[in-house]
Amino acid sequence: MSELETAIAMIIDVFDRYASTEGNKLTLTKGEMKTLLEKELPEILVNAKEKDTCEKLMKDLDENGDSEVDFNEFIIFVAAITCLGHRKFSDMKPKE
Length: 96
Prior knowledge:
It comes from Xenopus laevis (African clawed frog). Pfam families: S_100. With about 100 residues, this protein is mainly alpha-helical. Helices cover about 65% and strands about 5% of the residues. The chain has a single domain (about 5-90), classed as Orthogonal Bundle (Recoverin, domain 1), CATH 1.10.238.10. The protein has helices spanning about 5-20, 30-40, 40-45, 55-60, 70-90; strands at about 25-30, 70. Strands 1-2 form a two-stranded antiparallel ribbon. α1 packs across α2 (about 30-40). It is globular. The N and C termini lie far apart (about 35 Å).
């Protein structure tokens, strides 16, 4: 597989691994999402200024209001984080 295909497969695997620990295996509960953030994106929580960051994030991601994050909602989150990372690293590149 190419690097991009591998990255996509890894994103799917991460979602499935955490979604399979409670209830519906096709969605992330608040607890599953918090565990995913703590283990896979610890800097998000460390750099958060407010204690209820996970709670706010869940509310923002939950487009359909079912109190869970489905794969489509998760991908929107991954895309947003990727864009922020790209912007941050682009700003850090030395000017030519």
